[in-house]
Amino acid sequence: MTRILAVSSPGDPAISEAAGVLRAGGLVAFPTETVYGLGADGLNVSAVARIYAAKGRPATNPLILHVADREDARGLVADWTPEADRLARRFWPGPLTLVLPAGEAVPAIVRAGGPTVALRCPAHPVALALIRAAGRPLAAPSANRSQHLSPTTARHVETSLGGIVDCILDAGPTSAGLESTILDLRPPFRSLRPGPISPSDLEALGGAVGQGPGVLAPGAPQPAPGMAARHYAPRAKLELVLPGTGLHEAGRGSAYVSLGALPPLPEGVHGVAASRDPVELGASLYALLHTLDDAGFHTVFFELPPPEEAWLAVRDRLLRASTREGA
Ligand code: AMP
Ligand code: MG
């Protein structure tokens, strides 16, 4: 049975109730500023194992530990480096995940057996209050079945994991809408996943940041855990098109998403004019794809945004979502 608890402020009694569930080894889905997370006590091996089982997540894909502040992060790494401290001071709480050599406290299951741990301090007041009330770092991947669309509302979580999680904290839609930027802080610094914080935001702090491999070919070896090509995918077939092209292929039962004003569409094609603004589209992308999935379209044609830095994260998610085979 999944209990859904509406929560309107960090002082809401629902938060201490959910913290009790976490301390007892349960699963709580909670809002962050990026997407809803599927949380468990990150130091409790059997609780973390429940996350993998609930999501159908491969054991090779490690989890991010969510902490309330820099002090908590320090206790979970082998060495809290000056770069980590500088980045955390500038971007935490916020959508930046730092990968560092793990401290002894971090169970192997969280690291997927690897030597590093990924840490983030989320900016959502409910998430912060929950971490503090639980008194533990929370392991929390996105609260969806593995490879499916990430949830940006409590209802998305309920549809995907209802009956499986113990409790969902509902604080309305998330604001950033795309998963955090992930940075490997072992030299040479490398971006492992583009997100709301851009490469130039990071470079402003000194120390160049290399770009990860981007979207991998299906079957290619993964240079870092969790980089499977197919990810974040809707049920509908997602076809990326250049603005104004691909229209002739769109038939009945398909949808066409334009960036800005819709072009004239063939009869029977459902048109959606999405935002031309990268931050706005990022915030609404998953909700839009969930809606089109719920409506049952077999194919969604989506205009691919230009290869500019501002669109990096949206392009990454669209490219992964349109890849048919897992890597
Ligand atoms: P999500 O499942 O959406 O929360 O994404 C978590 C992602 O964080 C994983 O898929 C990995 O790509 C990444 N991650 C977590 N821990 C590590 C780590 N120790 N090293 C590298 N990447 C990590
Ligand atoms: Mg995910």
List the SSEs and their pairings.
Layout: E1 3-6, H1 13-23, E2 28-31, E3 36-41, H2 45-55, E4 64-66, H3 70-74, H4 82-91, E5 96-101, H5 108-111, E6 116-120, H6 125-134, E7 138-139, H7 154-161, E8 167-170, E9 181-184, E10 190-193, H8 199-203, E11 210-211, E12 237-241, E13 254-259, E14 270-274, H9 278-294, E15 299-303, H10 312-321
Helix pairs in contact: 1-6
The protein binds adenosine monophosphate and magnesium ion.
Adenosine monophosphate binds next to strand 6.
The main β sheet shows up as: 11 strands, mixed
Number of domains: 2
The fourth-level CATH homologous superfamily of the largest domain is DHBP synthase
Low-confidence stretches: none
Rounded to an integer in angstroms, the radius of gyration calculated over CA atoms is 19 Å
Indicate the percent of residues in helices: 25-40%
Count the E strands.
Answer: 15
Question: Roughly what is the average pLDDT, rounded to an integer?
Answer: 91
CATH topology of the largest domain: DHBP synthase
